[in-house]
Amino acid sequence: MFATTRPSGTTQEVYRELCRQARGLFDGERDAIANAANLAALLYGGLAGVNWAGFYFLKGEQLVLGPFQGNPACVRISVGTGVCGTAAHRKEAIVVTDVAKFSGHIACDSASRSEVVVPLLLHGRLLGVLDLDSPELDRFREEDRTGLETLAALWVESSDPL
């Protein structure tokens, strides 16, 4: 059994601890879905002020819902649409401090007020995105983007391609 506790400390210390825990979860496991499910649960339980954490995987020109923690979510998002689709199209992370001010935002959960989305890239090829939402305005900062990029890269290197 793998038990986690919410890390404390600076944002950088929290992400260092989450990376350490993620490595433990991924150790000896290469299944992408299993690793995504565990990482979504780790982030949902390990980060304060988060009401949704999960994955969308690229299928054709759409992002399709993968493992997540939180309320039910939109199942399909077109690449280039909303925060997730825009991050996928650009192949770069996006931090949105107020989703109401993001043109084309898709409100899967009306309680979400801020969001961060990190693309999952394997040698430049888009696999999907890692998405986190918060009911708090301005919840996510550049330190969150950096920490989540590290965790997304760890998931990619620890998992067999979909």
User: What fold name goes in the CATH topology slot?
Assistant: Beta-Lactamase
Terminus-to-terminus distance: 26 Å
Shape by Cα distribution: globular
Number of strands: 6
- Residue share in β-strands: 25-35%
The CATH homology group name: GAF domain
Main sheet record: 6 strands, antiparallel
Order of helices and strands: HHEEEHEEEH
Q: What's the helical proportion of residues?
A: 25-40%
Radius of gyration: 14 Å
Task: Give the key terms.
six-stranded antiparallel sheet; Beta-Lactamase; alpha+beta; about 160 residues; 6 strands
Provide an overview of this structure:
- This protein has 162 residues and is of the alpha+beta class.
- The chain has one domain (11-158): GAF domain (Beta-Lactamase), CATH 3.30.450.
- 35% of the residues lie in helices and 26% in strands.
- The chain is built from four helices and six strands.
- A six-stranded antiparallel beta sheet has the order 3-2-1-6-5-4, with helices on both faces.
- Helix 2 runs antiparallel to helix 4 (142-158).
- It starts with 10 loop residues before the first helix and ends with a helix.
Describe, in short, the structure shown:
The chain is an alpha+beta fold. It contains four helices and six strands, in the order H-H-E-E-E-H-E-E-E-H.
Sequence-ordered SSE layout with sheet pairings:
Elements: H1 11-26, H2 32-46, E1 52-59, E2 62-70, E3 76-78, H3 82-90, E4 94-96, E5 114-122, E6 125-134, H4 142-158
Antiparallel strand pairs: 1-2, 1-6, 2-3, 4-5, 5-6
Helix pairs in contact: 1-2, 1-4, 2-4
